[in-house]
Design brief:
The chain has 10 helices and 12 strands. By secondary structure, it is an alpha+beta fold. Strand 8 and strand 9 form a beta hairpin. Helix 1 packs antiparallel against helix 2 and helix 4 packs parallel to helix 5.
Length: 351
């Protein structure tokens, strides 16, 4: 079934309000979660609502945080999230980075004491909409990756997103985990009763693991897979240091598995950078140059078997338009889980 974005936002906001989140904050979180669904980040949108509500009810999240800047210089800041919902904390951090970048030309804002905030591109897009290049890093909320050559899971999917504005062409938006697949995709496969493709996970002996209900028997493969996985491992480590260790946030053994633990604060770390394009050249000229580059790449000679060359973010851009027009599709198991949640919270069913 498909649902209009407005219906999903209203249901999500009601759910948060019912567990004590202030009305304005509830609507902010709901808007960002549904934006994730609109762009096709199905493992990070309304799919996460039951888990978020469960953590709030267990005391794992502060519903009325005092989000604040702890340290600040001309082109940087460190934000303390006061264990608030990650969406609120990261919106605050992104807006602060944009404000600083207008004066300094570029700004880097680190975050600690936050929580899961949804897909990385949500926050890289915020500077992009202000005529800037946005970069986002995060430490994932559960470790699913061992160091290259090891079997002890000390790293997470630690994603990166980069959002670059264009003119007539879709913006270029890279959003990727440092593993072959984000764990949210594994969770959606499990809910739908679908197998995982080979190459996403392996067991502790290195054999393919395709049953998402057996995830605890293995771990995600880093980008590069069996042969070049040392590259993904290296990125997971470095991005985790930038988003976690640098900000005195959880990293390595300190990461709390929020899938298994609802009550312990996660001290999630993020980092966001904003680069003001106008500090380097006229924004309109930059947009034209990005458009030209996009058209050159898309129109370049294709390898046999490929019908089209896509640029990063082009498919999510098209999906956003399609879902905004036709509604967001919700698989039956997810709809059932949301309606069950609505009944428990006394807010009614979604559909």
């Amino acid at each position: 079934m498909r649902f209009p974005a407005s219906s999903l936002k209203a249901f999500t906001a009601k759910a948060f309000e019912s567990v004590g989140v202030p009305r304005a904050d509830a609507h902010t979180i709901a808007g960002l979660m549904v934006e994730a669904d609109l762009q096709g980040s199905d493992g990070h949108g309304i799919f996460r609502l039951p888990q978020y509500i469960r953590r709030i009810q267990a005391g794992g999240v502060n519903v009325k945080p005092t989000i604040r800047v702890e340290r600040s210089r001309a082109a940087m800041a460190l934000v303390h999230g006061d264990n608030g919902m990650g969406h609120l904390v990261m919106k605050f951090a992104a807006e602060h980075a944009i404000e600083k970048a207008r004066g300094a030309g570029a700004a880097w804002v680190g975050v600690r004491c936050s929580n899961h905030a949804g897909p990385a591109s949500l926050y890289a897009r915020m500077p992009m909409r202000a005529g800037m290049i946005g970069l986002y890093f995060a430490v994932g909320n559960a470790n699913h990756l061992p160091p290259w050559g090891g079997v002890e899971m000390l790293l997470s999917t630690n994603p990166i997103a980069v959002a670059i504005p264009a003119g007539a062409e879709p913006p270029i938006v890279l959003d990727m985990a440092t593993t072959v697949a984000a764990f949210g995709k594994v969770k959606t496969k499990a809910q739908r009763g679908e197998p995982m493709p080979e190459g996403w996970m392996v067991d502790r002996e290195g054999k393919p693991l395709t049953d998402p209900k057996r995830v605890h028997e293995g771990f995600l493969l880093p980008l590069g897979g069996h042969e070049g996985g040392y590259k993904g491992y290296g990125m997971a480590l470095v991005f985790g240091i930038l988003a976690g260790t640098l900000n005195a946030a959880a990293m390595g053994r300190d990461v709390v598995d929020f899938n298994a633990d609802d009550s312990t604060p996660t001290n999630t770390g993020h980092a966001i950078a904003a680069i003001d394009i106008s500090a380097f050249q006229e924004l309109d000229e930059f947009r034209k140059n990005v458009d030209s580059l996009s058209r050159d790449i898309r129109g370049s000679e294709r390898m046999k078997g490929f019908e089209r060359i896509f640029l990063p973010g082009e498919q999510s851009y098209a999906k956003f338009a399609e879902r905004a027009r036709d509604g967001v599709p919700l698989p039956e198991p997810l709809l059932a889980a949301l309606n069950q949640l609505g009944g428990k919270l006394g807010i009614g069913k979604l559909g």
